[in-house]
Write a sequence for this structure.
């Protein structure tokens, strides 16, 4: 019984029609910090170590030890670097260069943040990135949702071929097509537009995303036929069906696609590095890296902290959607 | 766009099926035309253009001219050509050593734990959510031979400090460490999802048959997740062979070309030397190598559907 991750054809999500968004991944959803949620699932939770073994005296001691070790190691490896970044930003120029370093800033101050804000022109960079992200989101929502709807519910001739060709783009290593993609953006074939240093260079390629089409089409496929047919009999046009039937029940997947689109614009580096070269057009990642050699260490750290806030906040609030999207796709690492 | 979306005028339902089908198709293509335009321009055409680019002489003054194999010759004649591929291969292999088994083991352990799961999952995925440029620039500071975090830790435990990015012996490994730190989380969560799909009865049966801890992993866990393991192997090879941001921001390819990767050289050909044809030719070579792995991956996904 292979894994659901790799089976796009198997709807591992509950059918969305009846109840509004039942979250995917029952067990994952249950793993909240409430007292003993593990008793709740219908099937007993069984992993390599048997529960019986775990409840023995020795088992409990070993379990406690492993748990403590794992929590400590994980915190050190994954949280401590971020702690170091945040506290580094709060240290003074002398303190940050001090050997041995201080574990806590002696006199925490937010001065470096103010300095970084000025030096990097963070206001401009953040506004730019947010603007690119918002536009990319609008494009993806308008373009990819409509296309996935047509492929899933209107089933045109050659629909299968088109879907296949769209998904095939996922197989192309992005680095390989980077140069021709740049040349395309520099002078769009037939139209002759120069998209460099315009938001379109981010927005248009964002919509040409096979992964979005894949996620959306698969979800739309799971919407019961009767629902669409009933609306058709009532005389609803396809646009109306999309708006009043499909979109309302597809909120979970639209959420996943939206989050991925926005986060990708904030995380992307190589593409904006190439196409947005004017300093007042750059995204925050590129802008920071361009002047990172010319600023003091604490100001750089402050800049990095500010640059990570948007994606970390999104992750904090939309963890479940992000993880669901990651495992549902499985395709794109 | 809008004209097509509106489609032909509405007809009474008694009309022949052919017309209805025509109308449905026109509407469907109306809905798809924007996406098709985006895919044609920014996904499909660049693939063809990459092929053409590698056989053409491209500058921005004259129209591209056919150049035969000249671009490939230029790339092959580059004295660092072999070194660049070796570096890329070394990076990929090292990244697999650190980054392939570790997430699986981490996922195994996480799956056994009954507490702090939400916290651990959050924490392990946190670096993945940071913009890569942030992670890389943060580690650049850690690698600082003076007050950098890593040498300070080494000093604390009484070991001599390393020169990390400044020495050709350690630079590549330093890049692998950043890359692994940033990407460990996604592999872990994918494995974790796979582990949670293993039916508990299998472990019970194995236990009844007297299989111990490691044999349960060997005979239940690994066969049950074999496909995900293989697929992740392919994905990781393809992803790490395209490594760019780490060398670009940390070392610029140095010291002594020890961290110059294929993607870096490609970028340099185009943006530093202005030789787009050579960049394209190198891209084609990378593409051919990666295609082998991608084909294996596709094959595995197909097998699973049967």
């Amino acid at each position: 019984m292979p894994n659901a991750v790799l089976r796009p054809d198997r709807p591992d999500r509950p059918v969305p029609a009846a109840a509004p968004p039942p979250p995917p991944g029952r067990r994952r959803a249950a793993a909240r910090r409430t007292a003993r949620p593990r008793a709740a699932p219908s099937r007993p939770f069984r992993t390599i170590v048997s529960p019986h073994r775990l409840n023995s005296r020795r088992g409990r001691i070993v379990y406690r030890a492993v748990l403590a070790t794992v929590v400590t190691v994980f915190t050190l490896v994954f949280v401590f670097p971020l702690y170091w970044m945040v506290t580094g930003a709060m240290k003074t120029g002398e303190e940050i260069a001090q050997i041995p370093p201080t574990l806590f800033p002696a006199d925490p101050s937010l001065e470096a943040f103010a300095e970084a804000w000025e030096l990097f022109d963070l206001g401009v960079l953040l506004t730019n990135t947010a603007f690119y992200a918002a536009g990319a989101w609008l494009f993806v929502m308008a373009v990819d949702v409509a296309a996935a709807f047509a492929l899933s519910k209107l089933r045109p001739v050659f629909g299968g071929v088109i879907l296949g060709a769209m998904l095939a783009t996922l197989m192309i290593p992005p680095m390989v097509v980077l140069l021709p993609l740049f040349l395309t953006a520099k002078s769009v074939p037939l139209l002759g537009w120069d998209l460099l240093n315009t938001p379109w260079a981010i927005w248009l390629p964002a919509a040409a995303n096979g992964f979005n089409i894949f996620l959306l089409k698969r979800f739309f496929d799971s919407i019961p036929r009767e629902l669409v047919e009933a609306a058709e009999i009532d005389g609803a046009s396809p646009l109306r069906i999309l708006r009043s039937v499909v979109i309302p029940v597809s909120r979970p997947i639209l959420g996943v696609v939206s989050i991925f689109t926005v986060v990708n614009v904030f995380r992307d580096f190589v593409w904006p590095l190439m196409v947005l070269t004017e300093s007042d057009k750059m995204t925050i990642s590129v802008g920071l890296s361009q002047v990172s050699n010319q600023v003091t260490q604490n100001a750089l750290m402050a800049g990095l902290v500010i640059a990570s806030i948007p994606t970390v906040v999104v992750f904090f609030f939309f963890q479940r959607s992000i993880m669901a999207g990651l495992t549902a796709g499985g395709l794109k690492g | 766009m809008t004209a097509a979306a509106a489609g032909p005028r509405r007809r009474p339902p008694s009309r022949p099926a052919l017309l209805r089908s025509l109308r449905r198709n026109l509407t469907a293509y109306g809905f798809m035309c924007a996406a098709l335009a985006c895919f044609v321009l920014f996904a499909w055409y660049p693939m063809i253009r990459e092929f053409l680019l590698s056989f053409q002489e491209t500058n921005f003054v004259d129209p591209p001219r056919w150049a035969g194999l000249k671009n490939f010759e230029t790339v092959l004649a580059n004295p660092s050509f072999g070194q660049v591929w070796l570096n890329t291969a070394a990076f990929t292999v090292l990244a697999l050593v650190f980054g392939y088994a570790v997430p699986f083991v981490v996922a195994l352990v996480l799956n056994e734990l009954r507490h702090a799961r939400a916290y651990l999952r959050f924490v392990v995925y946190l670096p993945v959510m940071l913009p890569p440029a942030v992670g890389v620039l943060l580690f650049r500071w850690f690698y600082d031979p003076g007050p950098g975090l890593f040498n300070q830790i080494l000093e604390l435990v009484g070991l001599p400090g390393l020169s990390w990015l400044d020495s050709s012996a350690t630079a590549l490994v330093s890049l692998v460490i950043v890359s692994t730190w940033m990407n460990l989380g996604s592999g872990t969560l994918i494995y974790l999802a796979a582990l949670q799909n293993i039916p508990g009865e299998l472990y019970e049966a194995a236990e009844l048959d007297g299989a111990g801890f490691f044999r349960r992993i060997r005979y239940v866990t690994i066969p049950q997740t074999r496909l995900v393991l293989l697929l992740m192997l392919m994905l990781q090879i393809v992803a790490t062979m395209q490594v760019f941001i780490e060398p670009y921001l940390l070392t610029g390819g140095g010291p002594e070309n020890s961290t110059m990767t294929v993607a870096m050289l490609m970028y340099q050909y185009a943006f530093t030397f202005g030789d787009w044809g050579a960049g394209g030719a190198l891209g084609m070579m990378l593409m051919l190598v990666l295609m082998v792995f991608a084909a294996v991956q596709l094959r595995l996904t197909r097998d699973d559907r049967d």
Remarks:
- Confidence is low (pLDDT under 50) at residues 1-43 of chain A.
